[in-house]
């Protein structure tokens, strides 16, 4: 049993516990495609050898979410839509509506399934949610300079460990990541750098 086997399925899938069966299925299928062998969506995040394990973990979360929602664990996939006929010559054409996101960015589920959390992947998660540094700074009340430092893993630009831990865990929580797992990954690299002079925490 891996240390992620007991992870909350809603956290892995990045959806609310009251999500409908249709929402659970849509998010799962989106993430399954993102983790499929050869997928470019997580190419820079996950080692190819890790993808089968993460797919299994995603499947376990999916099954648990379905059971909690009172649905059968296997649901028929939607039938493919027939191709629309080409527009008639001279008839007005409507531009297709932009697709709406059906769940969290693939990187969030990948990291919650146990992949190593790095500053670069936290930045990818933030951008996947469409959040700027300033936007997430307002939501978390963390100064932009420290958000940038966390994402760059610029340890010398961060204050003492207790503040850095709070920054990492707060950012992880806001991004839909497991805060404890995020800090555990970050702390290992922090410790590997040895003693680093810390700046004073900015005030005002």
Rounded average pLDDT: 75
- Count of helix runs: 9
According to CATH, what is the class of the largest domain?
Mainly Alpha
Q: Biggest sheet, in brief? A: none
Share of helical residues: 40-55%
CATH second-level architecture of the largest domain: Orthogonal Bundle
Number of strands: 0
Q: Tell me the distance between the termini.
A: 48 Å
Using the coordinates shown, work out and report the CATH topology of the largest domain. 434 Repressor (Amino-terminal Domain)
Say what oligomer this is: single chain
CATH homology superfamily of the largest domain = lambda repressor-like DNA-binding domains
Structure description:
The protein is mostly helical and 204 residues long. It folds into two domains: 1-73 and 105-115, no CATH class; 116-204, 434 Repressor (Amino-terminal Domain) (Orthogonal Bundle). It contains nine helices and no strands. The chain has helices at residues 9-13, 21-35, 51-68, 106-112, 119-128, 133-140, 144-152, 161-174, 179-192. The longest helix has 18 residues, at 51-68. The N and C termini lie far apart (48 Å).
